[in-house]
Amino acid sequence: MEITRTKESRLSSIDFENLEFGRQFSDHMIDMSYKNGAWQDPSIVPYAPISFHPSMHALHYGQAVFEGMKAYYADEETVHLFRLDDHHQRISDSSERLCIPSMDKSSFIESLEELIRLDHQWVPKKHGHALYVRPFVFASEEYIAARAANEYRYMVITSPVAAYYKEGFNPVSLTTTDNFVRAVKGGTGEAKAAGNYGGSFLPAQQAQKDGYTQVLWLDAKENKYVEEVGTMNIFFLIGNTLVTPKLGGTVLPGITRRSVIALAKEWNVDVEERRITIDEVFDAHSDGSLKEVFGSGTAAVISPVGLIHHQGKTLELDREKIGPFAQKMFDTITGIQYGKLDDPFGWVHPVKVG
Ligand SMILES: Cc1ncc(COP(=O)(O)O)c(C=O)c1O
Question: Which of 49, 135, 289, 328 is the most exposed place for a label (fewest CB within 10 A)?
Fold first, then answer.
């Protein structure tokens, strides 16, 4: 892998006390091309603008997928990546759905290790802070034709981010919508396709105008089964059972979701991955069995839900704080990620940087 180091690091210009998510980028990035039927020329180069023609395919047809993960500071010599195999599997699955050639696991992992080694000083040291890692692939062919492209570019950029919760947990409020859907069976909902997000911004804006944090998506066909939230999967603790919508083509298979399920099972909590209607959630709240609701995702890990609005009805949980189950889940997952707790599942991928 060819590495070109930056002549001048921007590290000293970063105010690590005031990081804004996704605004500052580390010194280097991965860049690889797909041409003539093969991925080739893997390189690490200084983070810089890239040039392309206005006819670049991805701009017109949205043939683009991405991933989101984090690198965690463990100690002076070690940075942790989390569930790398799963991220590789998901970007491969997303790529397949979008007709993008996938790349082998060793190139994916080795190039990330190299990038982390090179930019390890960009991994914030404070507990809770992390280096957000954004791999993405897009059709780079200069050709406007509505068919899969023949040329692609894979890149990885990284961005130091602050703790998601700076002043304690902030429970989110969710609303369903009767006017929009996120994903239909057979569509691209289970892929991390760029276009899925583009289409979700208008409903999200409307939800925010109405005073809610995010949309709680229901199924597109009957508008009654709960699916997920903007960038999180969703869990309901009903009695002593943890219920989450099953995957089935329309829900993004979250890696935090998978971790929550594995840990809950380890703790002998009954876990049900099944269809759950929004009415069942409201009924469980009415009869007192709905104990906790929380989202799961890489950005916040666990995000308590304090309120759900659906067709004029509102369900309120404790809007001030996180429930004990969600708290334990948050503490355990972050403990494993930062190397403070044992990693019985082998989720952590240590990168030696010292
Ligand atoms: C639509 C959607 N659902 C769920 C998630 C949570 O997935 P993960 O836990 O892998 O971050 C994300 C974030 O990637 C997302 O974008």
Answer: 49
Cα–Cα distance, 185 to 42 (Å, whole number): 36
Q: Is the CB of 94 under 6 A from ligand 1?
A: no
Place of tokens 């289409």: 199
223 in Cβ contact with 178 (< 8 Å): yes
Which residues are CB-contacts of 216 (< 8 A; sequence separation ≥ 6)?
174, 175, 176, 226, 229, 234, 278, 308, 310
Q: What is the reported pLDDT for 170?
A: 86
pLDDT the model gives residue 201: 97
Structural contact between residues 320 and 168, judged by C-beta atoms closer than 8 angstroms = no
The number of the ligand 1 atom at minimal distance from the alpha carbon of 257 is 9
**What atom in ligand 1 is closest to the CA of residue 299?**
11
Instruction: Note the pLDDT of residue 169.
Output: 86
Residues 6+ apart with CB under 8 A from 17: none
Q: Which residues pair with 173 in a beta bridge?
A: 307
pLDDT of residue 163: 87
Q: Residue 354: its pLDDT value, please?
A: 81
Nearest protein Cα to ligand 1, atom 16: 231
Q: Which residues of the chain have pLDDT under 50?
A: none
Residue 301 tokens, joined? 């890990």
Domains, the chain: 2-163+348-352 (3.30.470.10), 172-322 (3.20.10.10)
- How far apart, in whole angstroms, are the C-alpha atoms of residue 299 and residue 21? 10
296 lines ligand 1 (CB under 6 A): yes
Distance between CA atoms of residues 58 and 52, nearest Å? 11
Q: How much is the pLDDT for 83?
A: 98
Measure 146 CA to ligand 1 centroid, in angstroms: 28
Residue 247 Cα, ligand 1 centroid: separation in angstroms? Answer: 12
